[in-house]
Every structure is written in structure tokens, then in C-alpha cells.
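We store sequence with structure; for instance:
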Amino acid sequence: MPRTSHDAPDNLPRARHWRDDAACLHEPPATFFPTGKGPDALYAKGLCGPCPVRTACLTHALTFREDYGVWGGFDEDERAEMLAEARKAAEKQRRLDREKEKVNASSAA
């Protein structure tokens, strides 16, 4: 009879994850979900400063659109601003590409 997943041993190795090397690994999660932008938020951001996986953490938050908390040293408002700037830059690039295509098409004709 096949074994079900609840019969699997708990001590199987797992792949390393960027969180395994995070400076905040043993901090309570609530630390990174402060209310407001006061000292608690500054404390959380300060923990991120020397973290070896800060970039991976920020990338995760931006990729998965984490709506709340401090990730990679940035709060939700700062990340929203980053995403807005990236969208503006991408739209500007698309406009430039379309203009370039029009120029190329008219010169080829």
C-alpha cells in the first residue's frame, strides 16, 4: 500500500531558501509589520541594513506584491513608489520603441 504524505519522516532535507540566511530569522514577525512610520518601523528597517539577503527579500516583496510590512528595508509605501516608477519607465520605453518602429517602417517603405 502506498504511503501517504503524513507518513513521511519529518527529517528529510529541504532546499535552502534565501530566508535561511536572513538577519531577521529569529526576530518575531510582528517586528516587520509596525503600525505607522515611527521608531518601530525604523527599528525594522535598521535590521535589514546589514542583512546578506536584503536584495532577495526586496525582490520577493516586489515580485509577489507584498502589501504590508518592511521587506528588504523598505515599507509598503516605498515599494509602491518603486513599482510606480518602474511602470512609468517601462511605459516610456514602450513609447520610444513604438516611435522607433514607425521610423524604421517609414524608412523601409
In short: The CA atoms of residues 18 and 53 lie 6 Å apart. Residues 27-108 form one domain. The two ends are 71 Å apart (CA to CA). Residues 76-108 form the longest helix (33 residues).
